[in-house]
Design brief:
The complex is a heterodimer of chains A (about 400) and B (about 170). With about 400 residues, chain A is an alpha+beta fold. The relative contact order of chain A is 0.10. The model of chain A is unreliable at about 1-10 and about 215-225 (pLDDT under 50). In chain A, the strands form five sheets. Chain A has a five-stranded mixed β-sheet. Chain A has a five-stranded mixed β-barrel with strand order 8-9-18-17-16. A three-stranded antiparallel β-sheet of chain A has the order 10-14-15. Chain A is built from eleven helices and 18 strands. Chain B has about 170 residues and is mainly beta. Chain B is built from two helices and eleven strands. Chain B has helices at about 80-85, 155-160; strands at about 25-35, 35-40, 45-50, 65-70, 75-80, 95-100, 105-110, 115-120, 125, 140-145, 150-155. Classes of the chains: A alpha+beta (about 400), B mainly beta (about 170). The interface of A and B includes residues 33, 37, 276, 373 and 389 of A.
Chain lengths: ~400, ~170
């Protein structure tokens, strides 16, 4: 998919923009999906097999091309530049300057990066928290900055860029940075780490996203960065995104949000297990392995737990038949299966499947009604063939289905 | 999509015609399950479609047979026989899916076939029986008295709820 919406200069088109309800666009996208399905059904109708239809073939080819383009055009309708969100934040920063009496230079980068409108709409609030924290608690007052040899005006960079099928949005400040000692102490107090545990920086920064971590006391003494961070965490989970924090004391903090460009389309690999089809976002896959003899073993001492040997390590095998309820009961031997290896935050797992079918852009539909009971799934993917495949959430597969 | 727009070339047996004076609240789509006749309010029915290939889904109750792609919508299908605790029956060319929209989520009921839409005014519906499950909740809303038969009217909200209700004792038709 061409995720970068074309930048038609507003002046050139006379600034003629239309306001269209997202319901209408949703309906159009659904219809385009149906259209493409019907076209492929028509062209591949069994009655046509073995017929010599030169003219038809050419026309059918043209039709398919056009439908493909219509599909691209329709999916671009939902993409908007992040600029809209950034501009709202800019206004907020001006207000913050007045409130805090600090000078803030706001720099925006990559404002024309495209993002799904549904994502953009939900991004403002969490970003607001991040920016507010940077301005409020990250940036020092002018006098303190000068004493530290910095320019009196603090600097916040809002940056957006497309990285693969993700958009990376960063809020970078050059303030005092996170205070590791104080956050760690607070996290220990709350039992997030053991008293003698010395976690890595990344793990410490993660603590600030814990619900309720930001107490008033923490805000004033820990250079803030607690308020609303768990809101950010929740939103990011809903958007299938990730959060990264980097910080260096005295140098500043960078909060990075990685979000899929489009919630509707997913570049994915289609897998078959028995008669069921599954779908995995391609970015989640670390490796696909066809094991040789002796590359897997079962540990009877641990309830028959299976492991896959990969080079110099052993990866726990997560059979979907065991993870999910109501699957086929006979388990084929691992030697006949293909493994998808995921690197999850709780470690690697290997998921065996019968067959890898295809790689395609799929339309994803969220879980509704009774289907919300399905653990470890993002939703259902509509395949080009018209079939339905369940989209696996490997993070939840790896941690036992907990969200 | 209008709620009364019954589809489809696939299902010739679903010619639904309402008399103009009837209000939608008293109209029920009736369908046989075994020897019994059931009815759902047509207010929640969006369409009736033929059975198509079902993708089975894990982690759902056994009566959810899987999902289908209905023109770009993913719809879970409930086998009504299994939901009622009845023995299942092989699907045939009369088997159809009644698509409902309940609490904003679509669900399809796999039924043996559909009959007509009937107008059953409130005074013809017997609600005095105690159709109580464990918590006084029953899948049966009431019994609609027809000339020769009884239509068992279903409470669709409970029907699509997952908390395993005790299958209601089958009312005698």
């Amino acid at each position: 998919m061409t995720a970068r919406a074309e930048q038609v200069p507003e002046q050139a088109s006379g600034g003629a923009l239309l306001r269209v309800s997202s319901d209408k666009i949703g309906r159009l996208m659904d219809l385009v999906g149906e259209l493409s399905l019907s076209v492929s059904e028509t062209i591949n109708a069994p009655e046509l097999a073995n017929l010599d239809l030169v003219g038809f073939e050419a026309a059918a080819h043209r039709l398919s091309m056009i439908v493909g383009e219509v599909q691209d055009a329709a999916s671009e309708l939902r993409l908007v530049p992040v600029d809209e969100v950034f501009r709202r934040l800019k206004r907020m920063v001006r207000e913050l300057q007045r409130e805090t009496g600090k000078q803030i230079d706001l720099e925006m980068r990559g404002e024309d990066t495209s993002i799904d409108k549904l994502v953009a709409d939900r991004l403002y609030d969490p970003l607001l928290h991040v920016v507010r924290n940077s301005a409020d608690h990250g940036l020092e007052p002018p006098a303190e900055r000068e004493a530290a040899g910095k320019s009196p005006a603090g600097r916040i960079i809002l940056s957006a860029a497309q990285v693969g099928s993700e958009v990376r949005i960063q809020v970078i400040d050059d303030g005092r940075g996170l205070n590791r000692g104080k956050i760690l102490a607070k996290a220990r107090e709350r039992g997030l780490f053991g008293p003698s545990e010395e976690p890595e920086d990344a793990a410490v920064w993660k603590a600030i996203f814990e619900p309720g971590f930001s107490t008033a006391e923490a805000v004033t003494t820990l250079s803030g960065r607690g308020v609303g961070m768990d809101v950010l965490n929740t939103t990011m989970k809903d958007l299938r995104g990730r959060i990264g924090v980097q910080s260096e004391e005295g140098r500043g903090t960078t909060v990075s949000l990685h979000i899929p460009v489009s919630l509707a389309f997913l570049d994915s690999v289609i897998l078959r297990l028995g008669t069921q089809l599954y779908c995995v976002p391609i970015d989640d896959i670390a490796e696909i392995v066809k094991p040789g003899m002796g590359d897997h073993l079962a540990l009877s001492a641990e309830g028959g737990r299976e492991m896959l040997r990969q080079r110099d390590r052993f990866i726990p095998v997560c059979r979907l038949e065991k993870f999910f309820a109501g699957m086929r009961s006979e388990l084929p031997p691992l030697s006949e299966m293909v493994f998808i290896v995921f690197e999850s935050t709780s470690g690697p797992i290997a998921v065996p499947v019968d067959e890898i079918l295809d790689r395609q852009q799929v339309v994803m539909k969220p879980l509704e009604g009774t289907l919300t009971r399905v653990r470890a799934s993002w939703g259902f993917a509509l395949l080009a063939s018209g079939e339905v495949a369940m989209v696996l959430d490997c993070e939840r597969l790896a941690n036992g289905g907990v969200r | 999509m209008t709620k009364t727009a019954f589809a489809d070339a696939q299902t010739p047996q679903t010619e639904v015609q309402a008399e103009p004076s009837d209000s939608i609240e008293t109209m029920y789509l009736t369908f046989p399950v075994g020897s019994e006749l059931y009815g759902v309010s047509i207010g929640v029915v969006t369409e009736i479609v033929g059975l198509q290939r079902i993708m089975s889904v894990p982690d759902v109750p056994h009566y959810i047979k899987g999902v289908i792609n209905l023109r770009g919508k993913v719809i879970p299908l409930m086998d009504v026989r299994l939901r009622f605790g009845m023995p299942d029956k092989a699907y045939d060319d009369r088997t159809v899916v009644i698509v409902l929209q309940v609490n904003d989520a679509p669900v399809g009921l796999i039924v043996d076939g559909v009959n007509e839409v009937l107008d059953i005014p409130a005074h013809q519906i017997d609600r005095t029986h105690s159709f109580s499950g464990a918590e006084g909740r029953s899948l049966v809303l009431g019994l609609g008295r027809l000339e020769e038969r009884v239509a068992i009217l279903l409470n669709v909200n409970l029907l699509v709820e997952d908390d395993a209700l005790i299958p209601p004792m089958m009312a005698e038709a």
